[in-house]
């Protein structure tokens, strides 16, 4: 009897993604990754026509963030989340921003959505955490490929080494990437979006009352992060401007974040699924240590 193929497993505890994906600083990186995804004409059209990001941005963001956390920290649930996402995208198709037919699960489109996470997180980590060493970059890319397998991306559809990734990335930037309606919304201080509809009722009522004042400030901050943590070559491909004054402001913000976040207690520094997974990993390590200590003397006496 033939065995069913093994399910792809999440990256291991202690890796680059294990540390990065659950850290709250990752929240500041996500707008740039989303913008680079939807700068692709097929992906941009799919989100524009089929997503609720304009009418329910907070709910969509919460669901997307939980999905990402499951890829890394979900254990056996990671593979099921990958299958759920593929089911969700089966019916997403139409005409892209250049008048070409598209389907969300076309390998080139589906792989690009995943591929964007590597250059964006690599670039933003220089500001918010620290520059990755060459070894860390390679480990991070290998772990990102592993996450891609969870999502159902075949190895043949993603560059398998960093050396292969950069020519692929530059070619997509040159041939496909540009300003789309969704990118324009993400980098506009005037884009309308509703106040949060989650959380305690008094807080929601307060936010609703203050929303005319808060919304443009939140939109400007989102646009600032989106463009600021976008790799420069991607900014150029999309047509996004960035000034020296904005760069200095970004570096000041990043310096504060880099100083404050590492000293926060774990319950504030890591997102819920990451906290739970980190706690379970520590408990497993303690049990293994206790077993090794208990077995040590007996093992030595047996010799």
Q: Would you list the SSEs in sequence order as H and E?
A: HHHHHEEHHHHHHHHHH
Largest sheet at a glance? Answer: 2 strands, antiparallel
Chain-averaged pLDDT: 91
Number of helices: 15
- The radius of gyration over CA amounts to 21 Å
In spatial order, strands of the major sheet run: 1-2
User: Are there runs of 5+ residues with pLDDT below 50, and where?
Assistant: 298-303
How many separate domains? 1
User: How many DSSP E strands?
Assistant: 2
Helicity, in percent?
Answer: 55-70%
Broad structural category: mainly alpha
Indicate the proportion of strand residues: under 5%
Q: What is the global morphology?
A: globular
Note the gap between the termini: 43 Å
What does this structure look like?
- The protein is mainly alpha-helical and 303 residues long.
- The protein has one domain.
- The protein contains 15 helices and two strands.
- It has helices spanning 16-20, 26-38, 41-50, 57-73, 77-89, 107-115, 117-128, 134-150, 162-175, 181-186, 201-228, 232-238, 244-260, 266-269, 272-302; strands at 93-95, 101-103.
- A two-stranded antiparallel ribbon has the order 1-2.
- It is globular.
- 33% of the residues are buried.
- Residues 298-303 have low confidence and may be disordered.
């Amino acid at each position: 009897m033939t065995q069913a193929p093994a399910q792809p497993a999440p990256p291991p505890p202690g890796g680059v993604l294990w540390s990065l994906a659950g850290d709250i600083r990752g929240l500041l990186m996500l707008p740039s990754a989303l913008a680079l995804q939807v700068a692709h004409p097929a992906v941009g059209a799919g989100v524009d026509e089929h997503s609720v990001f304009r009418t329910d941005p907070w709910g969509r963001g919460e669901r997307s963030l939980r999905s990402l956390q499951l890829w890394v920290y979900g254990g056996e649930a990671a593979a099921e989340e990958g299958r759920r996402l593929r089911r969700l995208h089966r019916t997403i198709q139409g005409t892209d921003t250049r008048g070409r037919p598209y389907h969300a699960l076309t390998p080139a489109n589906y792989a690009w959505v995943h591929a964007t996470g590597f250059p964006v997180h690599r670039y933003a980590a220089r500001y918010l955490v620290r520059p990755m060493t060459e070894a860390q970059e390679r480990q991070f890319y290998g772990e990102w490929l592993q996450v891609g397998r969870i999502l159902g991306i075949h190895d043949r559809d993603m560059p398998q080494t960093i050396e292969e990734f950069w020519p692929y990335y530059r070619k997509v930037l040159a041939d496909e990437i540009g300003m789309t309606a969704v990118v324009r919304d993400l980098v506009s201080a005037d884009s309308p979006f509703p106040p949060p509809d989650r959380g305690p009722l008094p807080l929601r009522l307060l936010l609703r009352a203050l929303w005319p004042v808060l919304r443009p400030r939140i939109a400007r901050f989102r646009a600032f992060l989106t463009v600021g943590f976008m790799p420069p070559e991607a900014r150029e491909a999309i047509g996004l401007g960035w000034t020296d004054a904005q760069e200095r402001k970004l570096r000041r913000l990043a310096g504060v974040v880099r100083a404050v976040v590492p000293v926060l207690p774990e319950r504030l520094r890591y997102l819920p699924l990451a906290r739970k997974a980190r706690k379970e990993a520590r408990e497993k390590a303690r049990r293994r240590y206790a077993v090794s200590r208990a077995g040590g003397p007996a093992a030595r006496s047996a010799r």
